[in-house]
Design brief:
Alpha-Beta Plaits, SH3 type barrels, single chain, alpha+beta, four-stranded antiparallel sheet, 14 strands, 2 domains
């Protein structure tokens, strides 16, 4: 990974080049789809965390696409000053989430990969409050193999596993058979008692 110094407007800016990373951008209300299309037109790799669900409209159930992260779009880029400005100047983009340039906040790749795996699997899930405790686990079998998350609860043969995007403080939970979980090295839940 190379490091370059760029002088812009009389001040030094640090940036890393060579590796792609995930970043979150905040969009204007209900503009995620338009921003997604505009950024893709600019050859920016994006991920809109949408999924199909059923909602009751009046007396009928309808299938609709819903954004799991309303107001946010994930960007996977090798960030340079030019790319940063190109993204930020896109109509509908408000700001990057987290720290400002040049120390942009990154989302760990395994968190985004786990979210993509969960949404692509069509396994039932529900949104849950963001939690920072629990055993770190990985699913070792079944359609969610490779998913990493934290255990929320255990009941007989089932466990509720949370998949989180720490930077956005958003989480979803899914039921997984306990036998399909492998504990990872990580922080364990500490209960006051």
């Amino acid at each position: 990974m190379g490091r370059t110094r760029i002088i812009e407007c009389g001040r030094k800016m640090d940036t890393f080049t060579g590796e792609k990373h995930w970043y979150a951008i905040y969009c204007k209300n209900r503009h995620e789809n338009q921003v997604n299309l505009r950024l893709r037109d600019k050859a920016v790799e994006t991920y809109l965390a949408d999924y199909e669900t059923r909602v009751l409209w009046g007396t009928r159930w309808r299938k609709v696409r819903k954004n799991l992260l309303p107001g946010y779009l994930l960007v996977y880029e090798r960030m340079t000053p030019e790319k940063y400005l190109k993204i930020l100047q896109t109509p509908g983009v408000v700001k990057f989430v987290g720290k400002p340039w040049p120390a942009l906040s990154r989302i760990p790749e395994e968190q985004v990969r786990s979210l993509q795996l969960l949404l692509g699997s069509r396994e039932p899930f529900e949104e849950v409050p963001y939690l920072q405790y629990g055993d770190a686990v990985e699913v070792i079998g079944g359609p969610l193999r490779g998913l990493q998350g934290k255990v929320l609860s255990r009941q007989a043969s089932q466990s509720r596993v949370i998949v989180s995007l720490d930077l956005l403080q958003r989480s979803v939970a899914v039921q997984v058979e306990a036998r399909l979980l492998r504990k990872l090295q990580g922080p364990a839940l500490r209960l006051a008692g």
